[in-house]
Design brief:
Elements (H helix, E strand, L loop, with lengths): L7 E12 L2 E13 L4 E7 L2 E22 L3 E22 L2 E14 L11 E4 L4 E7 L2 E11 L5 E11 L2 E4 L7 E5 L1 E6 L2 E6 L2 E12 L2 E3 L7 E15 L2 E17 L6 E14 L5 E13 L3 E19 L2 E8 L4 E8 L2 E7 L3 E10 L2 E32 L2 E6 L2 E20 L2 E11 L5 E4 L6 H10 L4 H11 L3 H21 L2 E4 L2
Antiparallel strand pairs: 1-2, 2-4, 3-4, 4-5, 5-6, 5-7, 6-8, 6-9, 7-8, 8-11, 9-10, 10-13, 11-12, 12-16, 13-15, 14-15, 15-17, 16-17, 17-18, 18-19, 19-20, 19-31, 20-21, 21-24, 21-25, 22-23, 23-26, 24-26, 25-26, 26-27, 26-28, 28-29, 28-30, 29-31
Helix pairs in contact: 1-2, 2-3
Amino acid sequence: MNLENGSRIALTSIDIEQKPGVTIVKDGDISGALGSQSVLLLSSSAGKKSTVTFNKGEVDMKHVRMMYSDNSSSLKAQYAQIKGDIRDAFFYFSERNSLSFSNLSFQVDLKCESVTAECDGVEWSSDGKVKLVGSISPFEANINGGSWALDSINTLRVTSGAIKAPLLKLDSTAAFFPISGRFNKFELQVDSQNFRLSSDSSVALASVKLRSNDINLSPDESYPSGSMSFDGSINSATFGNIDRVGVANASMSLSLSRKPADTVQIDDGTISASATVKDSANDDASASVNLSSIRASASELTADFSMALNSLGTTVRIPPEHKSEKEGGDLSSIEANINLHEVPIGVTLARPFIFSGKLTAKEGIVNIAPINGVPLALDISVPSQELVYINVNHRFPGGSENLCNPKVNLNGGVNRINGQADFALNNGSVSLNLRNFVLEGNISMSAEDRNCKYVAGLICGAIGSIAGPAGAISGAYLCASKVQAAEKQASEKINEAIHDTISSYKFTLGQ
């Protein structure tokens, strides 16, 4: 104990024995007042000291024995009571569990549980040995900061909180928790940091509060035991090989517990968030993700998983094509120059696309059992534009003559595609197998110079040889015998192009 100005100490009933070079106090009592800034050292291990700094206090020690010499000194007391108003205190409950407090009433009673002449509540020597055994009376205080290890995986950085303890035991020689006991009120505010849900799953905390009315510290245990709730907001999450899912408006609520000689378990919990989703065309989609019934041990996490794609804006681009076709000889020929223009078709979700299943994260691998037959509705926006323009010319020695210019126009509009999707999660990518795509109605089109006599032979043969979807669409419309059937065939080709493009996308959770 360091005594500051204003401290007053009285020694009474002192029995002193003087020997050569040694002064021995065989028995006696010490009492007095502690001045402001006086410091009591409760425990010290590897430089980690638990201290109490007084505004004012009192000390009362019974059956004190002391020894003084030129080389050493020591003090023992069978019983001591130290109490007062505390300016601040810093408790190392264990090597990795420490909290600081301020402005509390404090009392420590130092004595062995079984009071005998051979057992002392206080032992001190000048060689650095300190042994304090006893109890800290019930107290309630605000927490100013510190760190709190839940287990070997997670140590929380504490910014504030509150604590209430009915009675704490003090044994400065204990292997793990020199200050031990039970807290019936325990609240910690935790700042931004990573929190491990299991060995390969974690969340980046934004602001979280830990609460419990059942935290137990045992001198034989490395970490606290008991049950806790963990509530707050998060910035991102990692599940196995799905790395850093960016989230917004994310909330987390977990029920944690740790039994003696065990690791922290997640017994139940939810994580709800808006997430960043990208498709393989690098288009953003907004999604909401919900994990419920979360359970986790050190090695495995399971949860009920649901995800809703709320909006998806992507563009299916039907690429341009060009082809020239010729019939005849060098002196006289018919040439057709076919120009197929690029068509950007906007694709959006007509309603949220929702799928759910069971998620398991273990040994770095995340699995979600296949989910089949999820309804999917897409709105496609077809622009008003020219799809194909064909220039047919008669070439002859000395010149050429334009014969006709067939063209196909897209009239524009919004159409609905209904279908089903089979969902699977593999190596961090969400893949969709789309099936039963059905386009409601037909894409509206129109044609010019449709009756050009060269369409049926020269042009349709040339368009039919073009591999891209634009050729198939144009050929279906321009070369069919009836306009209504042509529009239907062309619409089916657009439906196929959208299906093939969307089916190839990989939707990846992440930034």
